[in-house]
Write a structure and sequence with these properties.
Shape of chain A: globular
Helix content of chain B: over 70%
Number of helices of chain A: 7
CATH class of chain B: Mainly Alpha
CATH superfamily of chain B: MetI-like
Strand content of chain A: 15-25%
Structural class of chain A: alpha/beta
Oligomer: heterodimer
Chain lengths: 257, 257
């Protein structure tokens, strides 16, 4: 199943944030969306997830849901968005409660999501008892529990410290290779984009348009190797060159605001 | 380096509270025993305790207490039920918010006891106007507390639930109400105090039974020990209600610990 954004445009209170953005999130493909602050990355993700109706253009689903899929689209949030009054296990179960899934199957799905994200021993813990990294694992486990075809990840690592981020990048590398899921991955961090994505889409400064698209040719599992570093660094430099002017303009705009 | 971090962290402990209470009772009793003040104006704690015992032993106290409790209970439950429904509607929907906020702002400051004569005209003499007065008094602070609680629900939690296609009714029950619960329980504190004030006021105006009526009758007959016994009963009732709400808060909001 693929997710297609066709000529998406959007504005808030007369301020155009996205203009004519077309892209496809294909099954099993990780697409990173990068760009300067305020270029509409998160808005684009909200539009892809059906949380915002675009002012122009449309989002289409092409193809069938994969077998066993409970919800075709799932999301992972920057601020984790965990229900603080529910345990880890119950936070994951929350997204299954309204689905036609039997109790035994539900238990199995939750246990499986916990196992895949290394959370099995924290099933009974409450979010306040967890570190930022563990909270985001719960967010990822919750998204995987609905066996989505497309996963929307909105800066999932940006609230974490650098060490936790490094650990989670390694875990995500394994997870994304193991899961048969297409991913739209919004990030500010180019290093994250080139480590995790198959394709990096660069949005221009506001209004966000697609400015550049770069394929990451190295298999995800090999990108941590020293031999891959030179090529990834070159790609990162190219992406930065695309973004730099827009980033400076956005920074000055924020400073003036 | 001298310690500069002193203060600004008050913590209430039981021993000073008990000591202050015991000192007050002792001084009051000493004033009564020494007859520095006419017992008609200020009966001693011992005289009040005797009056309370006599009232309890004769069964008169329980008759008045039961009547008051039924009125408070009925009015509080009706006002709270209405306040929860309207508060949620005002917090969730644009139309009810537009209408409800202005109406609540207009009616909330009216002393509800001033409406008792009108309610007697509308509903007849009997229990109904008293219960209705209490229900009205409870309704408005409950609407405000519930609406405020709903407003404070983190938007990211609602967006998370929407992104997983969780139905509205489930979002209301599983996200909004638990998240608004601290504000709702704070509202219960205010509304229960209001209910107690209103039951006494309404019984003082138009009842021949209930703690308020008993206090009025005792005052008319200059039985000041009985009058203060009624006041003590009210104080204990207020304390029991406050403790019950605290217990509810501890149980329902354990996840915040």
């Amino acid at each position: 199943m693929d997710l297609l954004a066709q000529a998406i445009g959007h504005s808030f209170d007369g301020l155009t944030v996205l203009a004519d953005v077309s892209l496809a999130i294909r099954s099993r493909e990780v697409v990173a969306i990068v760009g300067p602050s305020g270029c509409g990355k998160s808005t684009l993700l909200s539009i892809l997830g059906g949380l915002v109706v675009p002012a122009s253009g449309q989002v289409l689903i092409r193809g069938r849901e994969p077998p066993g899929c409970i919800s075709p689209i799932a999301a992972v949030f920057q601020d984790f968005a965990l229900l603080p009054w529910r345990s880890v296990e119950d936070n994951i179960r929350f997204v299954l409660d309204h689905r036609p899934v039997g109790p035994a199957e539900k238990r199995g799905i939750v246990a499986d999501a916990l196992r895949r994200t290394g959370l099995s021993e924290f099933a009974a813990a409450y979010p306040r008892q967890l570190s930022g990294g563990m909270k985001q694992r719960v967010g990822i486990a919750r998204a995987l529990a609905v066996r989505p075809a497309i996963l929307l990840m909105d800066e999932p690592l940006s609230a974490l410290d650098s060490q936790t981020r490094a650990v989670l990048i390694e875990d995500l590398t394994r997870l994304l290779d193991a899961e048969r899921v297409g991913v739209a991955y919004v990030t500010h961090t180019l290093d994250e984009a080139v480590r995790l994505a198959d394709r990096v889409v660069v949005l221009s400064a506001r209004p966000g348009r697609i400015q550049d698209v770069a394929d990451v040719g190295i298999p995800r599992s090999e990108r941590a190797r020293p031999s891959a570093q030179k090529e990834l660094a070159a790609l990162q430099a190219r992406l930065w060159a695309s973004i730099r002017d827009g980033a400076i303009a956005a920074e000055r705009e924020v400073a003036r605001a | 380096m001298p310690f500069r971090g002193r203060g600004f962290a008050p913590a209430a402990t039981a021993p000073p509270a008990i000591l202050a209470f015991a000192t007050l009772i002792t001084v009051w009793q000493a004033v009564g025993t020494a007859e520095w003040v006419n017992p008609l104006f200020l009966p001693s704690p011992a005289a009040i305790a005797r009056a309370l015992w006599t009232l309890a032993a004769s069964g008169e106290l329980w008759t008045h207490l039961t009547r008051s409790a039924l009125r408070v209970g009925g009015g509080w439950i009706a006002g709270t039920a209405g306040g929860l429904v309207v508060g949620c509607a005002v917090g969730l929907f644009s139309l009810t918010r537009s209408v409800g906020l202005s109406l609540v702002s207009a009616f909330y400051p009216i002393p509800k006891i001033a409406l008792l004569p009108l309610l007697i005209l509308w509903l007849g003499i009997g229990e109904t106007p008293k219960v209705a007065t209490i229900a009205l008094g409870v309704f408005f602070p409950t609407v405000i507390a519930v609406c405020g609680g709903v407003d404070q629900v983190p938007r990211n939690l609602i967006r998370m639930a929407q992104s997983f296609d969780v139905p509205f009714s489930t979002i209301l029950r599983r996200v909004i109400l638990p998240s608004a619960l601290p504000a709702i329980l704070s509202g219960f504190r205010i509304s229960s105090s209001t209910a107690l004030l209103l039951v006494v006021s309404s019984e003082m105006i138009g009842a021949d039974s209930g703690i308020g009526a008993f206090i009025t009758q005792a005052g008319n007959l200059m039985k000041t020990a009985d009058l203060l016994a009624g006041v003590v009963v009210l104080s204990i009732l207020g304390l029991v209600v406050a403790r019950t709400i605290s217990w509810l808060e501890r149980r329902a909001l354990r996840w915040r610990a």
